[in-house]
Amino acid sequence: MAIEYPFGGNVSRRVLPLQDYAAIGDGRSVALIGRDGSIGWWCVPNLDSEPLFDSLLDEKAGGVFTLQPKGPFASKHVYRKDSNVLETTFTTETGVVRVTDSLNSSLAGRLPWCELARRIEVLSGAVTLSLSLVCGTRDQTASPWLQPNCNGTIFHVGPVLGMLRTSDNVHITEQGDRGILGEAALARGERALIAVVAGEDQPIGIPSTKDIDRRIDVSDTAWRAWAQGLHYDGPYADWVRRSALILKLLLFSPSGAIAAAATTSLPEKIGGKKNYDYRYAWVRDASYTLHAFLWLGQIPESQAAVAWLLARLGEAGAKVCFRMDGTPVPPVQEKGLPGYQKSYPVVTGNAAGTQNQHGVYGDIFEAVSLFVASGNILDQKSAVILASLADECADRWRQPDSGMWELEETRHYTMSKVSAWQALNRAVELAEKGHISASCAPRWIRERDRIATWVNENCWSESLSAYTFYPGTVRLDASLALAVRFGFPDRERLAATCEAIHKKLGQGPLLYRYTGAEKEEGAFLACSFWLAEAYATLGRRQQADALIRETLKVLPQDIGILGEQIDVKTNDFLGNMPQGLSHLALIHAVMSLDSRR
């Protein structure tokens, strides 16, 4: 659809299916790039900042940075091997051109500014590309404006300022306060560069286009050097390595926190209301990331995850999630954007920031147990904090909570009780091995055993041959497959629960989160991998391997990015992306099949 922008000129734009977007990042922010060359999401300077480009949530008036051939084209995109540098190849009637996209870093690490670089190379024939940079309005709270000076044309969007840098063979055809239009007519062997250099409330050192272009390859080298340390080369190596690289994208280098996803408000059902902001750091994801990176041999990232986790616990206690800088998650606030495919509301903030979830205790103690089991040590302050949290879990496990799925109605969710059991079991193990004080361990043992008895007396259904979502219901919860990993007693009942989950919540290899979820959302990708992991841990390795393979067949095969959910009818992604939990679940499923585990 062609629309007229406030500064003039017609530019084609459309919102693509979510699986047609790839992600690039620099350890601080993440940009989503469509197969058509449009960058429809980029928050500057941080992952949880206001977006500079947000056409993904506002097709008509949102900010976007598009670079594509004029006229009809076919396109495909692929990451460079073991890298988060992206290459998109456009095939036109007159030639073939490749665009290489990178959020750049330097040899010394992250740059003091954001540098989004786009290199153009004509591979055959001749191609004319159109450029369109349109700044967003930060949800109508800022009015973009351009300021020409002797060093170039600067754009301002509230506290964000930046500059469009281009090589000499890119011609600017029109510019105004809202953005810039241009084009580049190139023949085989010719190259061009287009980049945005930006920051927030800071002076910016503007690099030359040659330096920006060079840093694309520097960044690629850095990604590949990091990926060389991934210690897995089994049958799922491509998926595992890509998942690790995506998790590295979501790791916020200034603090060590890992974001649940890079976006907000992408819907769990088109036209539905289940739209959430996932640009925050969940304790659960930190725990799972620690486990995955330890297995893959990435010790610095493991250290960063556990250090971030213990620091937050010391400051705020057992909270479910935090902002990327460690401060509290803000309350939910609706924004005025129309939403992806008109799926409203668009929100910032997340209610989980103030929820009571017993699962957080299990996540904390699982992370610490894995950390010390790998030969690492705890400081005395952390040991005191952990002992206090074990006491707190022993006191609170009988209370209802919002559960793992962060539901509005508080209940005695079975998985929450299992997580409390997990926490106290790990606390006892830490005390027995001398990592934390053992003075309260006898009480932790008694409460741990009471939880197991309570779950078996109140949450088991003889008619279903399964543990149920909560006492007194026939509903099932797919997250209970994780109880196998946690080592919850009675493997026979756990195996039967897994079979019931697969039968009642499954659509082929895909699973819904819980009974009734199919009415309001897609299948939850992590659940398929959790079930596969459970099968492997129960000794049913062939069944686990088959489920992993069947699930992967459903997914797009080109770039390896996973969304949160998937529409079982269309195989379109749903929910925020890239979804860290989906990639973590895939790694854990493969890990369960690995003989080195």
TrEMBL record:
Protein name (database record): GH15 family glucan-1,4-alpha-glucosidase
A GO BP entry: carbohydrate metabolic process
Upper lineage: Bacteria, Pseudomonadati, Acidobacteriota, Terriglobia, Terriglobales
A Pfam family annotated for this UniProt entry: Glyco_hydro_15
GO molecular function: hydrolase activity, hydrolyzing O-glycosyl compounds
Domain of life: Bacteria
Residue stretches making up the Trehalase-like N-terminal domain: 16-106
Cited InterPro entries: 6-hairpin_glycosidase_sf, 6hp_glycosidase-like_sf, GH15-like, Trehalase-like_N
Domain (GH15-like): residue spans on this chain: 235-589
Signal peptide: none
